[in-house]
Amino acid sequence: MGLSLDAVSKSYGAQQVLAPTTLQVADGEFMTILGPSGSGKTTILRLVGGFTRPTSGRIGFGDADITGMPAHQRPFNTVFQDYALFPHMTVAANIGYGLMVRRQTKPAIAAKVGQTAEIVGLGGLLDRFPSQLSGGQKQRVALARAIVCEPKLILLDEPLAALDAELRRQMQFFLKSLQRQIATTFLFVTHDQEEAITMSDRIVVMSAGRIEQVGTPKDIYYAPRTQFVAGFFGDNNLIPGHVTGNGMVTTALGTMPIPAETDRRERDVMLAIRPEKVLLGAAGSGSHQVSCRIDDVTFIGAITQLRLRPAAAPDQVLTVKLTSDRTRLGLESGTVVSASLAPGDIALVEVS
Amino acid sequence: MVSLPERIILFMLVAAGPFLLIVVPIGAFLAMSFFRMENQQIVHDLSLANYAAFFSSWTYVKTLLLTLWLCAEVTLIGLLIGYPIAYFIWRRSGRIRTILLLLFVLPLFMSYIVKIFTMRSILGLNGFLNQILVAVGILSEPSQVFLYNQNAILFTMAVIFLPFVILPIYLSLERIPRSLVQASADLGADIGTTFWHVILPLSAPGTIAGALFAFVLALGDFITPQMVGGANGFTFGRVIWSQFGLAYNWPFGAALGTVLLAVALLAIVLGGLAAQRQKV
């Protein structure tokens, strides 16, 4: 069930902004579409919301084909990037707009509006106009307006982009808990990786009009499948390699077994390992040991970042992040250390 | 920093232009309305006699009221035609929108007299309208009913002032973010509901401005009534004009002009209040 996109594409004239895309969103899921600007993420949102029609493909919801259904008939509501609050209406009228359109009685609207305002923390502001609200308050009005009609799916178009860092963190937690409370599917669009990782059940990573990878935040973070995904989320060590037929991969740092349950075909790949997963010193059994010289050490508060140069491949840099420790000794540039890479922490990234 | 005396001098220099061009002529006009005529001479005695003459003459007051009614009709027709056009242009996009807007605003660059003559040639006995109606067979011979009466004035004014109505309405529509229209649809409103609850209220300031333009322009217009109204189309503007021309009674004409100015100001103030009520 849920929402399904079946080979949905969108072109403007000769320019294709969304390649044929297939995607399933389960009921009650917090799904984030993540990508840089121009990646097609907002196009997906607009297609689902009904604000634009796909050039090809089918959009389904539950058992119904909603490809050609106009926006006002879809059981979805949207939180717009610029909030799109009606400037000539009070907060109460804004929140109650969807109910008013559905011809509910005034007392019923007032009761529901009051209740929803409480949920989003807007009690006492119902008589204000949007121009009298702060950014965070406008955000909450936009949210309340979207949830008041109890839609099956809520679309959120970069709703936190305009908020400052502190408020954004608060809203991230709030959105997540709200989503659990009302048990509604959220389709959330953002370009902020951290936001995507902290809030989502699953993430769709997009680039240049196509899906790069769909997976849980941990999948995306630890097991990127494409170079784009591997490079998009924070720092990553990317090491060129070649998969040989016998389940091994050869790199400049030596030959090591490929991670379990990966494709064993012979080909060029990239190995990706997170800086915090590179261990120094004595390693567990099965780990691949690499002798390196420390290039430099940077203390960044909670973590200390090292840049290592493997003795076998001086052109390759390995970034390592350690939990900072005041008493740790011997980590100075020039020191030779042994770095260990555990097979379970290495991701095979396809080279396209 | 500019010192205070310097600022005062600066302000006076800047204020001199508007003062000389606007305040002085209106002041002179106002002063004139309190004078009187005697033996073809203007006598500079101050009195309210001109105003008393106006308010005690039913003919003049009635002409003013009929003119106000005519202007209200011009405004209404202007809005009924202008709003849909502005809305239609707004809903287009890209080049088509620019071209349409240009087409409808282009008449503003044309001479007023040329436009009136065009309307005359359309409405006249051998005019375009008659030719079409005769050709189609609705009329058996050209009719005179289209020109030289009150309806001809109404129709001509409505057409000539249309760009003044369309432009401010279009500009206020233009200022409505598309996302508001989408948000309304998103919340379940069809286009009619969206229009009624979002678009119309948000374009009210421009609509009021357009209505004011049409009303005030029609109020002061004496050329259109003269050119297409004939003997039957007598408006307050023509009465004032005749006081300055034919009758050579400038003080009385000035008093009538002051009454007209007061009415126009009242209309503008009322329109401004109405626009302010819209919280935009």
Verbal overview:
- The complex is a heterodimer of chains A (352) and B (280).
- Chain A has 352 residues and is an alpha+beta fold.
- Chain A has 8 helices and 20 strands.
- Chain A is elongated.
- Chain B is mostly helical.
- Chain B has a single domain, classed as MetI-like fold (Orthogonal Bundle).
- Helix content of chain B is 75%, strand content 2%.
- Chain B is globular and about 70 Å long.
- Chain B starts with a helix and ends with a helix.
Rg calculated over all Cα atoms of chain A = 25 Å
CATH topology term of chain B:
MetI-like fold
Count every helix of chain A, treating DSSP H or I runs of 4 or more residues as helices.
Answer: 8
SSE order of chain B, as H and E?
Answer: HEEHHHHHHHHHHHHH
CATH architecture term of chain B:
Orthogonal Bundle
Task: Give me the oligomer status.
Answer: heterodimer
Q: From the 3D coordinates, which CATH architecture of the largest domain in chain A would you assign? A: 3-Layer(aba) Sandwich
Tally of structural domains of chain B? 1
CATH topology of the largest domain in chain A: Rossmann fold
Describe the biggest sheet of chain A?
6 strands, mixed
Shape of chain A: elongated
How helix-rich are the residues of chain A, as a percent range?
Answer: 10-25%
Number of helices of chain B: 14
List unreliable stretches of 5+ residues of chain A.
none
Beta-strand level of the residues of chain A, as a percent range?
25-35%
What is the molecular shape of chain B? globular
Structural class of chain B: mainly alpha
CATH H-level name of the largest domain in chain A... which superfamily? P-loop containing nucleotide triphosphate hydrolases
Number of strands of chain B: 2
Assigned CATH superfamily of chain B? MetI-like
